[in-house]
Amino acid sequence: MSSDTITQGLSRARRGVGSGGSGRQAAPAPRKPSNANRMPGHRSRSATLLGFALPSLILLVLLNVYPVVYAGQQSTRNGDLLSAGNFVGLQNYLSVVQEPVFWHAALFTLIFTIVGVFGSWALGLAMALLLRTKIPANGVFRVLLLLPWVVPVVVSATAWNWLVATPQSPFPVIAQFFGLGNPLFLADPALAQVLVCIYKVWISFPFMMMMMSSALASVDTNVYEASKVDGAGPWQTFRLITLPIISRTTYISWILMTIFCVNDFPTIFLLTGGGPVQSTQTLVVMAYITVFQNYQTGPGVAIAFLMTIVLVIISVLLYRQIRKVNIE
Amino acid sequence: MSADSALPGTLTVGVNASRTRKAPAAGERGKWGRFVGILVITAIVLIPIAAVLILSFTPALGSTASGFTTENYVDAFTQTDVLTWLTNSLIVTLATVIVAVAVAAPAGYVLSRGRNRLVSGYSLVLFIVQSLPVVTSVIPLFILFAQLQLVDNLLGVTIIYVGSTMSVAVWMMAAYFDSIPITLEEAAWMDGTSVFGSFIRIVLRNSLPGILSTAIFCFLLAWNDYLIASVFLRSDQNKTLPVGLETFFQQNQANWGLVMTVAVVMMLPPILIFALLNRYFSVGGIGGSLAGR
């Protein structure tokens, strides 16, 4: 049954793209007589395609779908890492939602995501635009600027730690030199929040740079020359020509980066551990700490599952939106 | 310390270099202006990475060496478990890359060539799965893997990495297959080749850049992962580099030279891969494949 549908899809795609194709047809016949002798047998073909998809399907169900379902179940129990525990209804959710820390974490997740997405986009786009112009050693910069994204987070978190952690670290010393006191980035809640956001932008902008570069590469340079002839200034050119052309990639990159930021764990955990006084905890970090440091499995899973529900709804909506954007 | 003095140093060289040349035309001057601008930005961006490198060549506390030294590297490989961690990381990462590409390539083919409700449902599931936080599935997987004796086991983490790279890997492969015209396969089918045969001999043969791109993505994900490794790998001889470095850092906070040496060992493989294969890697493919169906 299912394999038949896959095959139909294949034959439709083939007829759409192929040389003798009849374009888009509303109701494709499962087997067209004219095609029958140039395709491998119907049955073997569908079996092959099902076989192609099967390993990945098994892995997806076993490693991604099953755990989420299990987590949903576990969030209504008072178990721990080893035993399932008893059914407690929505008690875990209630206890989590009543804590101010949870709402603080939710708010910081939002701030962290907004700064992460738009900060890295702005910087990445600026770099992509700059690298598009004639600059000596262009290719070298292109590779060097990817490094923050390529270097493992554990490594860069260690390096940032060295730069800011103690009063003798370089950044506090430099700040003191400019008369800004001796800021302790990891001890002050507000400064730690700012630092984590900057760190996230630092890690993420190369990804945005790559996305934007590939979008800009498809822009015809003649368009710019035409606009120059028409007397458009650089800002006008950017706003009226460049932005609309890269809008689709921009939109998709925002979605991807939002997902990356909301689900980000190591960036925050390795730099601040969620501290000081839980100021840099996002929901993911809070869930991890609740389970693995406070050993409250039920509430921790409840936080994670709440996020999961919200993300499933958002991603289904976004998925439709993306497809719409694509059709236009 | 030396990072401070060295970085402005590189900057001055750059500024002087651009000053020595005379800019005859306005466009030419703009070119060098932009060069200086991007040089400054790159230098600022690379401060943390430069710090790692420089500190790893700086003598450790209580060491008799002065100035530039490779002493930390000798110490790291003789006195710490870094070699074990490196081996573990390499095994886990390479296994992940091979299995993930082998599973994702045929699945990507189905996604690329099939256009019907079932396939787009599959695509939606992939999109949802990759947008979920890993934390949610870590605990159920931990309980499951504990029963299967896969906790504190390199095979266990490899299986999870394959699962977590799967959705994006399938997309990236599908996006590349989209760029291969189906007419090639049709010709082969006319000659009596099976779908499987044409997939191996025509599609895969022409997909080296797509395969490399996917492989690099899987490599980065498995090599850099901290969360899963920190939960699943408990004993010292099973740790991969990220967990190894983190615990080592917690225990030797004052000994920056040694810590940064382990960090260099860890960041070198991904940097080398990017330096060599960077032209094959395109994240544009991720966006394209997302929008493409």
CATH superfamily of the largest domain in chain B: MetI-like
Count of domains of chain B: 2
Instruction: Find the structural class of chain A using helix and strand composition.
Output: mainly alpha
CATH C-level name of the largest domain in chain A? Mainly Alpha
Question: Sheet with the most strands of chain A?
Answer: none
Rg estimate of chain B, integer Å: 24 Å
CATH superfamily of the largest domain in chain A: MetI-like
The structural domain count of chain A equals: 2
Molecular structure report:
The complex is a heterodimer of chains A (328) and B (293). Chain A has 328 residues and is mostly helical. Chain A has 2 domains: 2-13 and 30-74, no CATH class; 95-327, MetI-like fold (Orthogonal Bundle). Chain A has helices at 2-17, 33-36, 42-74, 91-97, 100-132, 138-144, 147-150, 153-164, 170-177, 189-216, 221-229, 234-262, 266-271, 283-292, 297-327. The relative contact order of chain A is 0.11. The model of chain A is unreliable at 1-38 (pLDDT under 50). With 293 residues, chain B is an all-alpha fold. Chain B has helices at residues 2-20, 26-45, 47-56, 71-79, 82-113, 117-130, 134-147, 154-178, 183-190, 195-203, 208-224, 227-232, 241-251, 256-277, 284-291. In chain B, α4 (71-79) packs across α14 (256-277), α8 runs antiparallel to α11 and α9 packs across α10 (195-203). The longest helix of chain B is centred in the N-terminal third of the chain and has 32 residues, at 82-113. The radius of gyration of chain B is 24 Å and the shape is globular.
